[in-house]
């Protein structure tokens, strides 16, 4: 039972490392931050108040135009919509195509949508079975 164990050569004997091949070096990792989700490690928003004010001014300028450039509005909104001055809710109405881009049509479109909502609500309350 005391048979000699077979010994295996070490891996370096089987495959000696070639000194001619340099070992690859890895470039240092750089952190890429998503501008849409900029936050520090604790999850706090790291945008400065100056950036928010600047964005608010840009959005206000775009919203003050007679015909709103939707491409520009989408670009500005993708950077974040500040909550000040009631801009956020108004911007979302345009982004969701609830409001027309031509501000001259805004009043008539809102009246039409409010009338539709009133009729939908009345229909639902008067005849709820047909909606289920």
From TrEMBL:
Q: Where is this region: Disordered?
A: 1-59
Q: Tell me the superkingdom of the source.
A: Eukaryota
Residue ranges annotated as compositionally biased, kind Low complexity, are: 38-48
Protein name as annotated = Rab-GAP TBC domain-containing protein
**Phylogenetic lineage:** Eukaryota, Viridiplantae, Streptophyta, Embryophyta, Tracheophyta
């Amino acid at each position: 039972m005391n048979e000699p164990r077979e010994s295996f050569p070490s891996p370096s004997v089987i495959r000696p490392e070639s000194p001619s091949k340099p070992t690859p070096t890895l470039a240092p990792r750089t952190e890429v931050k998503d501008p849409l989700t900029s936050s520090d490690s604790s999850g706090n928003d790291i945008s400065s108040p100056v950036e928010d004010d600047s964005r608010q001014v840009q959005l206000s300028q775009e919203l003050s135009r007679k015909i709103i450039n939707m491409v520009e509005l989408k670009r500005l909104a993708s950077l974040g919509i500040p909550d000040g001055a009631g801009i956020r809710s108004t911007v979302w109405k345009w982004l969701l195509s609830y409001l027309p881009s031509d501000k001259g049509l805004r009043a008539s479109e809102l009246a039409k949508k409010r009338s539709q909502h009133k009729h939908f609500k009345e229909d639902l309350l008067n005849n709820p079975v047909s909606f289920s």
